[in-house]
Amino acid sequence: MQTIRNYINGQWQAVEATTLPVTNPATAQTIATVPLSPTAQLDVAAQAGQVAFREWRRVPVTERIQYLFKLKFLLEDHLDELARIITNECGKTYGESVGEIRRGIENVEVACGMPILMQGYNNEDIAPGIDEHMIRQPLGVVAAITPFNFPAMIPLWFLPYAVATGNCFILKPSEKVPMTSARLLELIAEAGFPAGVVQLVNGGKDTVDAILDHPLIRVVSFVGSTKVAHYIYSRATANGKRAQCQGGAKNPVVIMPDADMDMTTRIMADSAFGCAGQRCLAASVAITVGAARQTFTEFIADAAVSRKVGYGLDAGVQMGPVISPDSKANIERLIDVGVAEGAQVLVDGRQQQVTGYEDGYFVFPTILDGVNPNGTLAKTEIFGPVLGLMHASTIEEAIQLVNNRSYGNMACIFTSSGAVARQFRYEADAGNIGINIGVAAPMAFFPFSGWNESFFGDLHGQARHGVEFYTQTKVIVERWPQDWSRQF
Ligand code: NAD
């Protein structure tokens, strides 16, 4: 049993506080305890970050990125160990855990380009003899509050850009999966970052509120559910902070009759049931158009039934448990809601058990046909392995169904028609679009572009957006009168 500690000002610190158990969702066994850090702990971290910032912002960017190069190789060297930690505390399969670490490492790699990424621009002679320059400067102490479903990748959406631009970074990970962050911070310490540049403060709502109210914390990045994203954005910005808050999702996917059905089903099964549906880019509703209905319904039902569910470290397992008993109960409740609204259960993943893991929080792949487009289920994030089916006669009707919701994280289409794909790309009301792709996750060198209720803010995570978010622009207008009488 691991006791999770905070990492503050270059030291690991045990915390005198209430603790919560951390559970392996496949076995229901407690594997660690995590402290709910009091406000005073956060204050110590913020003060230490502010002190560290005075030096860190003066470290040349070419030197700051050397720590990230070291971190990249440490993450590569410890990939297997980190993946096992993720699977044990979060439930996803080993392969999925490796995949998310890779996505995190890619962000470290991109941030290593900071000497170019954070360059400003300039003009000579904006008036005779006067030049103007824009430079980017860091803001100070910044914080990220992250969710349970990608314990390694999501902190790395923010950390590399924040520190490479010269800020000091505080991570408040999800209290459900604190073990990955604890190991990540050990590797960060090993990479040699100076004390106070990267810190870890564990906790729940009170710790988050302390971040949102702390006068030294200038910037807040958040990823989690829409309700909390909205709360955090409102409170952080009311306190004068910069904020980027990524929220929940309900992702529709259109299946055209001209799509390659084998490929489509394979990709869709992975999108809907991969990570047990606990991805903000999981396909949640499939909208078949015309003749796609019959074939896709048959194929996807087969794929759902044949998916191997179990403990993510066991060989051959394709899908793990959901994160908690509450989550399992909520998913099963929402399936009931869908049925009450007129949907038929084609494949039922409720009340199933995995042999050897009878206490685990498993929901098997579930397919609901004929989901009411105006019902609760069609608009509510389930965050579990449940795919709803709707049917349309035309692409126009399908696009209307796609846009009939408040979220805007992702929308996808499967088709072999370029014209239809273009129409979809143009009209779909979502910030991440997939064309013959089931999980349209932007690479580290593109912004993670959620829209509507899936994102509150202006600048998204990753890449150039991250650089802009973690820097403030300074414009210098400069005149140096020449003494023409001086002879050189
Ligand atoms: P969550 O909102 O419950 O928790 C996220 C973080 O907020 C955690 O660190 C938690 O401690 C903190 N928190 C929770 N309740 C709070 C409150 N009332 N006040 C202050 N802080 C609070 O989310 P989760 O269950 O950990 O993660 C799943 C959600 O995250 C899903 O909705 C999913 O769609 C979303 N998500 C979105 C993206 C994206 O890019 N848009 C990516 C991953 C996950």
Multimerization status: single chain
Over all CA atoms, what is the radius of gyration? 24 Å
> Strand-residue fraction?
15-25%
Uncertain segments are none
**Ligand inventory:** nicotinamide-adenine-dinucleotide
| Overall pLDDT score | 97
Please give the alpha-carbon distance between the first and last residues.
75 Å
**Percentage of helical residues?**
25-40%
Structural class assignment: alpha/beta
Shape: globular
Short note summarizing the structure:
Helix content is 39%, strand content 23%.
Characterization of this structure:
This protein has two domains: 2-247 and 454-476, 3-Layer(aba) Sandwich (Aldehyde Dehydrogenase, Chain A, domain 1), CATH 3.40.605.10; 251-435, Aldehyde Dehydrogenase, Chain A, domain 2 (3-Layer(aba) Sandwich), CATH 3.40.309.10. The model has no long low-confidence stretch (mean pLDDT 97). The chain is α/β, with parallel strands linked by helices. A hairpin with a 2-residue loop joins strand 2 and strand 3 (11-13). The strands form six sheets. It has a seven-stranded mixed β-sheet with strand order 15-16-17-14-13-19-20, with helices on both faces. The protein has helices spanning 39-56, 61-77, 79-90, 94-111, 114-117, 153-164, 178-191, 205-213, 226-238, 261-273, 292-306, 325-340, 376-379, 395-402, 418-427, 463-469, and strands at 2-3, 6-8, 11-13, 19-24, 29-35, 121-127, 130-138, 141-145, 168-172, 198-200, 217-223, 242-246, 251-255, 283-289, 344-347, 366-369, 386-392, 407-408, 410-414, 432-435, 451-452, 455-456, 471-479. Nicotinamide-adenine-dinucleotide (NAD) is lined by residues 145-150, 172, 174-175, 204-205, 208, 223-225, 228, 231, 246-249, 280, 381, 383, 409, 448, 450, 454.
